[in-house]
Amino acid sequence: MRFTRTKAAIAAAGLTLSLAACGGDDGGEQVEVTEDVEFEAGTTMAEIAERGTMTIGTKFDQPGFGLLGLDDVPEGFDVEVAKIIAGAMGIAEEDIEWKETPSEVREQVIEDGDVDLVAATYTINEERAQRISFAGPYYVAGQQLMVAADNDTISGPEDLADNPDMKVCTVTGSTPSENIREYLANNNQLVLFDVYDKCANALGNGQVDVVTTDNVILLGFVSESEGEFKLVGEQFTEEPYGIGIEKGDTEFCEFINETLAENEDAYTEAWERTAGEVEGTETPELPEPAPCA
Ligand code: GLU
């Protein structure tokens, strides 16, 4: 079994005709685009509106949140949230360039000005907030474990240290890669890749025994696994997802928070047609935003 990109590429070869027949639409709703937007000169919003295009960082390998589709455009809740924000600055989805941003490079692409924002299952925390600013949170996830369906040995993080031969996979630069260490027998138990679909593939072919990251990301892989994977134990962290932007851009942060608050219906619909389609997920309420700093 191979996940996501490989699977999508193989499927794409056979699906070109039927996609063409329905106009290449990915089935997603068009997000509202505000016309004749006006922003105070000098703000990021004014600059983006004037430019008429945006570059947005997201994941390309996470079903339900950011997964590259057959048309080479990512789909998922993060993508839809980013489209709501873009739309409020008059930017339509065809004017968005999507840039794959694995966990480890998120701060860097913001600092380098390669993207206007990052929406990528991006936990707000103090260490990251030294380098960038966060709008939101717009969702709160929690770390959990995923194992093969026939694994009855691991039923939560407390079982990992007792089974030092069982390898635990996660992603470099992620909060789960830090949080899991206290539960491991030693660092040799940890396997790190750059993206989560490599962990899911490694679990599928038995190279690792456990994958750990946020529950909603794991649920996406479970639903794609056709019964091969399951989640075990309770979530053992809180992961509030923020929109990463340039450090100190308070006006942009406030604009993003206001935009989400004003578009709660679009937010809920975005969830329901993406992550909400995955078994085991629950429609969230938009959380109260944290103060912009
Ligand atoms: N939310 C966690 C983080 O930001 C895990 C998911 C991810 O790596 O994107 O590190």
From TrEMBL:
Report the SUPFAM superfamilies cross-referenced here: Periplasmic binding protein-like II (SSF53850)
Please list the residue ranges annotated as the Solute-binding protein family 3/N-terminal domain: 53-278
- One matching Pfam family is SBP_bac_3
UniProt entry keywords in alphabetical sequence: Signal, Transport
**Record keywords: Transport included?**
yes
Superkingdom of this protein's organism? Bacteria
Q: By its UniProt entry, which InterPro entries does this protein fall under?
A: Bact_solute-bind_prot3, Solute-binding_3/MltF_N
Kindly indicate where the leader peptide sits in this chain: 1-23
Q: Which Gene3D superfamilies match?
A: Periplasmic binding protein-like II
Family as reported in the entry's similarity comment: Belongs to the bacterial solute-binding protein 3 family.
Protein name, per record: Glutamate ABC transporter substrate-binding protein
Q: Which organism is it from?
A: Nocardioides deserti
